[in-house]
From TrEMBL:
Database matches in InterPro entries: NAD(P)-bd_dom_sf, Sc_DH/Rdtase_CS, SDR_fam
Pfam families documented for this protein: adh_short_C2 (PF13561)
CDD domains for the chain: SDR_c (cd05233)
Official protein name in the record: G5324 protein
Organism phylogeny: Eukaryota, Viridiplantae, Chlorophyta, core chlorophytes, Trebouxiophyceae
Lineage: superkingdom: Eukaryota
């Protein structure tokens, strides 16, 4: 079954000239989103922890800047916003796309470190970024915040306890911010992907002992397209939510997972391959 990838190329005229900050923009979904915004004429700033990886992405963009920041440090949020505003002369769109996978987050235990790591990265830092960005986002009464949530907020994986809870909290943050900020002219929404072909598969190789090919085979069974979702297919809905095409959408959570969310539960990949033997 052939399909078009979802990253809009030059389809959203309302994004031209918009100033966009994308956290976690050096790889995966963040990188695809940065390219999508740039293709639509936006001015883009991306964050990441390694300058070389940021440079590799900005070299592919038309007008772009980068900020080295470790957003596991919540105090970095204000500096990140201030630098982005200085570089671009303002801020119209914030995409909270940064993520991290630590052993504590991805484990099935309920230790303090897992919750601390998960909530720092997926709740505390995005909340602080949005708070510091709000004076700029609301200036023209046409701002947007898009939070990268997860299918795990809707349909839990019992092997990622802290991650599930943090992403569910992120969806509640999205709804709360939408009620608080839409009246100021800033729409707040989230995109909830299932498994996407990013570095997460490299982490899963280490965690499961399976090959990437085996994990891809398993991931195809978890959705009704029987394909592995690509980062561009998450970037597309993000661009839509940021554009004027979504001018009356705020407080929404959009699953992007080819009907995975209507299944009863996600099967563990090791169980899947064990059952095939």
């Amino acid at each position: 079954m052939s399909r078009f990838l979802g990253s809009a190329d030059g389809q959203y005229k309302s994004l031209k000239g918009k100033r966009v900050l994308i956290t976690g923009g050096s790889a995966g979904i963040g990188k695809a989103t940065a390219i999508g915004f740039s293709d639509n004429g936006a001015i883009v700033t991306i964050t990441g922890r390694r300058q070389a990886r940021l440079d590799a992405v900005t070299s592919q963009l038309k007008q772009a800047y980068s900020i080295v920041a470790d957003l596991m440090d919540v105090s970095e949020a204000k500096r990140t916003i201030d630098e982005a505003v200085e570089k671009m002369g303002g801020l119209d769109i914030l995409v909270n796309c940064g993520g991290v996978w630590t052993e504590a987050i991805t484990g099935d235990h309920m230790g303090e470190q897992g919750f601390t790591d998960a909530f720092k990265m997926h709740i505390m830092t995005p909340v602080q970024l949005t708070e510091h960005a709000m004076p700029h986002l609301s200036k023209n009464k046409n701002g947007a915040v898009i939070n990268l949530s997860s299918l795990s907020a809707i349909q839990v994986n019992p092997d990622s306890f802290a991650y599930n809870v943090a992403k569910a909290a992120m969806d509640h943050v999205t709804k709360t911010q939408a009620r608080k900020y839409t009246k100021l002219g800033v729409r707040v929404n989230s995109v909830n992907p299932g498994y996407v072909d990013t570095e997460i598969f490299d982490v899963m190789v280490k965690d499961t002992g399976l090959t990437k090919e085996q994990l891809h085979e398993w991931a195809k069974t978890e959705n009704e397209l029987k394909q592995v979702c690509q980062p561009e297919e998450i970037a597309g809905p993000i661009l839509f939510l940021a554009s004027d095409a979504a001018s009356f959408i705020s407080g929404a959570h959009i699953p992007v997972c080819a009907a995975s969310q209507v299944q009863l539960e996600l099967e563990d990949p090791t169980v899947f391959h064990a059952n095939k033997k």
